[in-house]
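Recap for those who missed Tuesday's class. We walked through two folding examples back to back. For each one, the amino acid string is listed first and its predicted structure tokens come directly after. Nothing is annotated here on purpose, so try labeling regions yourself before you check the end of the notes.
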Amino acid sequence: MQTRFPEWIRRSWASGNDFSFTRGLVEDLSLHTVCQSARCPNMAECWQRRTATLMVLGNTCTRNCRYCSVPSGKPEPPDPEEPLRVAAAVRDMNLKHCVITSVTRDDLPDGGAQHIADTVRSIRSLCPETTIELLVPDFEGDEHAIEIVLTSQPEVFSHNIETVERLYPAVRSRRYTYRMALGVLRQGSVHRPKPIIKSAFMAGHGETKDEVRQTLCDLLEAGCEAVSIGQYLRPTPKQREVAEYVTPEVFQEFEALAIELGFQFAVAGPFVRSSYRSEELMQTRFARERMDVVTG
């Protein structure tokens, strides 16, 4: 177990007018962000760029993963006005690309799929030029719920594998399984029109390089085309400890390995998160060509 904070894990404090603008917008519209709830280390940088990853279906998750600081418990019913407020936030932030995620809602019959789809359609109505990335939960493998989300036609369909298969029982809520996560991505990969399929996972939980390679191969087999790999950072003392601080050089190895294995887009680094600078994916030739196919 490594307890000393390495020198490459440093982030600036949040400040400035642009940060205040983002915070004010989120508060005024009564929205939640994964930036705040998950204590993301990139929050200062992103909010200063007037962008945030909005989280729908409330701020209470029905699962309790050992790495995550999003509150767990019994959630409130979905707010039917939330999709419109999310769309207003995307408009007011003037986003060309937005990432929408949600807590896991096992208490709802469809896992919140219709609410997420309604959010996409609200953004489309208010911001027709904005591309949308959906980072979704596993819906307990419910193919009907996943289909509801897919038919809203996000440009990017994302589900995080989070860690290697061996460490799933130690890292994730027991209701998550590695194979179910792959199934979510696989269903997205056969949907037409096909969105870009993306996933992400965290290094630093004690995985080996061989397990990282196997995870990348499993994601490719499931149809995944884009991947992000970041460093797990313990949000609070309540979450599991960091097993290892992976060096920037090793992250470069992971990124090169992903491209070598066949990913169209890969990014890895200590502060990389699934939604961090996600707009860079949309600027690649691969993404532009995919959008041309989708729009005809």
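Example two. Treat it independently of the first, because the proteins are unrelated.
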Amino acid sequence: MLLELAATRRVLFVGGKGGVGKTAVASATALAQARAGRRVLVVSTDPAHNLGHLWERPVGDRITPLVRVPGGGLLDGIEVDPLATTEDHLAAVGATVRRLMPEHLAGEVDKHMRLARDSPGTHESAVLERVAELVETGLEDYDLVVFDTAPSGHTARLMALPEIMSAWTEGLLRRRVRAERFGAALRGLEDRDDAGESIVGTERPRDPREERDLEIRRVLLRRRARFEALREVLVDPRRCAFVIVLAAERLPVLETVELHGQLVRAGVHVGALVVNKRSPADAGAFLAERRALEETHVATLREALPDLPLLQVPLLPGDVVGEEALERFAAALAQAGHRAG
């Protein structure tokens, strides 16, 4: 069921409470798709990166080959470094602002950018830009992009941010238009000939203020287009789906119901729930009692979200580390899908 969902999508987000096995589910799903012949990129946006640990090799903030399958399938991985992403974002914004501002204000721009480093929203904005970039390039270079996301609260905000940032950028553009009209009117008062040219057009070179206005507008339009493109992918159920991973415990179940509501309000299609590490009922009294308690939490989940496909993956005897273990985990996901279907 989960693997069938991944096979029909271009972008898959895997999220949920911390410590429930999101990275293992994301990696095993990505590996199964690569084995099926697709070109797959798995992206970790969780600051507590586990992708490299899971694959037993350095991954880091660059695209790293993980698996090559004879016949064309492949799997690459990348761990988005939030600090490096924020620094790169601020450097790019600072360079743009310095280019647009008078030279004598360069010191003020640098001061503002230093203060912005720790301002609320800076980190989220930088990570969102990186996610938008990876979705954009991922759709060009890969058949499927799987995001292993941060714990629920961060991810819910990330899913809602493209719409918020698009609206914010749209507001900046409207104010930019008003400012340009006001500036043109002032220039017209300074020079009557300019006023006439603003109406009939002219071949004269633009003055620095006009060039600055046009550059600001171009920057804002590029930013709005990138957020709108990401938003279009996130809310398109034919291309994108979200999978919530959880443990059969009270708090993860409550958090899953809350996260599902936030995603639905953001317009994101939730494709499946994966209840990971289910205790066996036939391995001793302790685990049988544990299994019975888990059943009550799964029943609560089914009652709250009755229409969502629900996979139950058994607790496996070993750690899910390395390619062979991930293949076994992918097989467990496939069996869970057959039982659920």
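Answers for example two:
Residues 152-190 form the longest helix (39 residues).
The mean pLDDT is 83.
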